[in-house]
């Protein structure tokens, strides 16, 4: 059978990360390539208790079909929490529970983008979202990143130059993959530019609660008085990615369309998982849980930084991060990055080549991404040592 595919998916490729996972599945390979929460970060005991309680008290509620908008109690509690703690959600906004934040990207793009519309993205940016945008045949335009977030002049140039720009996609906190956090000034600048040029902002914030250093910076959505920001949140990095519970907070007319689209995709997000998230947020000490996560990642990051200093500095450089799960490492210009990453796998350590995160994968890139949350402490240190040995060989020194 010769299969024929839609134009929409014809050019889609499996993400480089998924490909790399094949190598990472080898038990001998140390994977610094994933983006998973640390095994010790899961509140497994509490979730077990909550699930048992739900089945004792409301088994049919947990097993029956539910409403597309999301489990009503979770919607109510989550919106109140986001309003109180993050000033997110005005009278013109609504909340929709989704199957992970990934589905927010999908539903929002489906609702607002036509084929050929332009989506402005930070370069580099999260592969999962870029592939979603590509699947709707949107044209991606990468805007360079600076130490304090997206380049505002690059953004304004693109807004002046490009026709049919629909929205800017941004990950302001501990960005995946660069680890960069956008300054408050830039957040205001981005919002003002979006307002001036009449585009929307898709603000993706899966890592915001994982700040282990520095001061909290308000979300762009928190100063949205015009209804131009769609906010994507998720429980993936703070409770469990396997439960697939995320959420969108944004202007009601757009959410209404996203709800119709969701009906055609998965009817509703897994109701048992939604009930568990709701109980965990409301009946357990959620803030103490978040504080515990920050402590886990603060220690892991300190370990990774120390190993990087010892094994890769000063030839490899990186932007120090204040939260999240990733470090973006830049090799000297003399070393070919894709070859370095391939050879690293042969030495049994796996990192993600940076060009996988670009809007155009063929653009030059000397960086790779390291994840410090998933490996054990021993694997993290050993993995970085192996990278250091390879680096010294490449630079012609002694291993
Ligand atoms: C920046 C970013 N956005 C969205 C997601 C998707 O998260 P979810 O598991 O909620 O779909 C991820 C997952 O790694 C991510 O890094």
UniProtKB/TrEMBL annotation:
<comment type="subunit">
    <text>Homodimer.</text>
</comment>
<comment type="similarity">
    <text>Belongs to the class-I pyridoxal-phosphate-dependent aminotransferase family.</text>
</comment>
<dbReference type="InterPro" id="IPR015421">
    <property type="entry name" value="PyrdxlP-dep_Trfase_major"/>
</dbReference>
<keyword id="KW-0808">Transferase</keyword>
<feature type="domain" description="Aminotransferase class I/classII large">
    <location>
        <begin position="28"/>
        <end position="385"/>
    </location>
</feature>
<dbReference type="InterPro" id="IPR050859">
    <property type="entry name" value="Class-I_PLP-dep_aminotransf"/>
</dbReference>
<dbReference type="GO" id="GO:1901605">
    <property type="term" value="P:alpha-amino acid metabolic process"/>
</dbReference>
<dbReference type="GO" id="GO:0030170">
    <property type="term" value="F:pyridoxal phosphate binding"/>
</dbReference>
<protein>
    <submittedName>
        <fullName>PLP-dependent aminotransferase family protein</fullName>
    </submittedName>
</protein>
<dbReference type="InterPro" id="IPR004839">
    <property type="entry name" value="Aminotransferase_I/II_large"/>
</dbReference>
<dbReference type="Pfam" id="PF00155">
    <property type="entry name" value="Aminotran_1_2"/>
</dbReference>
<dbReference type="GO" id="GO:0008483">
    <property type="term" value="F:transaminase activity"/>
</dbReference>
<dbReference type="InterPro" id="IPR015422">
    <property type="entry name" value="PyrdxlP-dep_Trfase_small"/>
</dbReference>
<keyword id="KW-0663">Pyridoxal phosphate</keyword>
<keyword id="KW-0032">Aminotransferase</keyword>
<dbReference type="InterPro" id="IPR015424">
    <property type="entry name" value="PyrdxlP-dep_Trfase"/>
</dbReference>
């Amino acid at each position: 059978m010769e299969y024929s595919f839609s134009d929409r998916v014809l050019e889609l490729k499996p993400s480089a990360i998924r490909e790399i996972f094949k190598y990472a599945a080898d038990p001998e390979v140390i994977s610094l390539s994933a983006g998973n929460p640390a095994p010790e970060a899961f509140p497994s005991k509490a979730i077990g208790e909550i699930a048992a309680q739900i089945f004792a008290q409301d088994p049919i509620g947990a097993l029956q079909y539910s409403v597309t908008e999301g489990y009503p109690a979770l919607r109510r509690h989550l919106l109140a929490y986001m309003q109180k703690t993050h000033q997110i959600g005005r009278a013109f906004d609504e909340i929709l529970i989704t199957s992970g934040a990934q589905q927010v990207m999908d539903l929002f793009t489906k609702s607002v983008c036509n084929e050929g519309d332009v989506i402005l993205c930070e370069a580099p940016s999260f592969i999962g979202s870029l592939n979603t945008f590509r699947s709707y045949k949107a044209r991606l335009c990468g805007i360079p990143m600076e130490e304090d977030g997206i380049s505002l002049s690059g953004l304004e140039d693109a807004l002046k130059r490009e026709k049919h720009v629909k929205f800017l996609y941004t990950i302001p906190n501990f960005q995946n993959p660069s680890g960069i956090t956008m300054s408050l000034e830039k957040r205001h600048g981005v919002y003002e530019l979006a307002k001036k040029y009449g585009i929307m902002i898709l603000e993706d914030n899966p890592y915001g609660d994982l700040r282990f250093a520095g001061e909290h910076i308000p979300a762009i959505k928190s100063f949205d008085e015009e209804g131009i920001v769609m906010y994507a949140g998720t429980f993936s990095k703070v409770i469990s990615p396997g439960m697939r519970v995320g959420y969108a907070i944004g202007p009601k007319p757009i959410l209404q369309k996203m709800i119709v689209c969701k009906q055609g995709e998965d009817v509703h997000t897994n109701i048992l998982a939604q009930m568990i998230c709701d109980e965990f947020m409301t009946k357990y000490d959620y803030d103490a849980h978040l504080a515990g996560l920050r402590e886990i990642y603060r220690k892991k990051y300190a370990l990774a930084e120390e190993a990087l200093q010892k094994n890769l500095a000063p030839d490899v450089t990186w932007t120090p991060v204040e939260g999240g799960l990733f470090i973006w490492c830049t090799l000297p210009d003399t070393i070919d990055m894709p070859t370095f990453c391939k050879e690293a796998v042969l030495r049994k350590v796996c990192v993600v080549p940076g060009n996988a995160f670009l809007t155009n994968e063929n653009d030059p890139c000397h960086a790779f991404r390291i994840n410090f949350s998933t490996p054990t402490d021993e694997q993290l240190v050993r993995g970085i040592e192996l990278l250091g040995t390879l680096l010294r060989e490449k630079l012609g020194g002694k291993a």
